[in-house]
Fold this sequence. Notes:
This is Lipoprotein. This protein is of the alpha+beta class and about 130 residues long. The protein has a single domain (about 25-130), classed as Immunoglobulin-like (Sandwich), CATH 2.60.40.4400. The chain is about 30% helix and about 35% strand. The chain has a 7-stranded antiparallel β-sheet with strand order 2-1-4-5-6-7-3, with helices on one face. A hairpin with a 6-residue loop joins strand 6 (about 105-110) and strand 7. The N and C termini lie far apart (about 70 Å).
Amino acid sequence: xxxxxxxxxxxxxxxxxxxxxxxxxxxxxxxxxxxxxxxxxxxxxxxxxxxxxxxxxxxxxxxxxxxxxxxxxxxxxxxxxxxxxxxxxxxxxxxxxxxxxxxxxxxxxxxxxxxxxxxxxxxxxxxxxxxxxx
Length: 134
């Protein structure tokens, strides 16, 4: 009987740890650092702006495992800081962003293998550009 109780306790603790350690999504966006060619570094920590950026990032049409070669350097290099758990290190996601003047869209390459290569449509690309180049 003691072995059964011990086994049950072990399995219960294992299940609680397994469920407790899994997270859905990236977490909460807490800040964004970016480098814009000829403008230098910029940091965004304003909650409203971060919410807009998070909403725009959800509109990107991602193609995982696709890494195109680009003819020019990225116009914006951004690092998104996501807090998954309080008092734990943030997760960093790096993005390179190109704005396609002719089509009005934006091309984005992520260091997250679940995302990879993505594009933003004309309206969302314009909104992103307005936020980044204030």
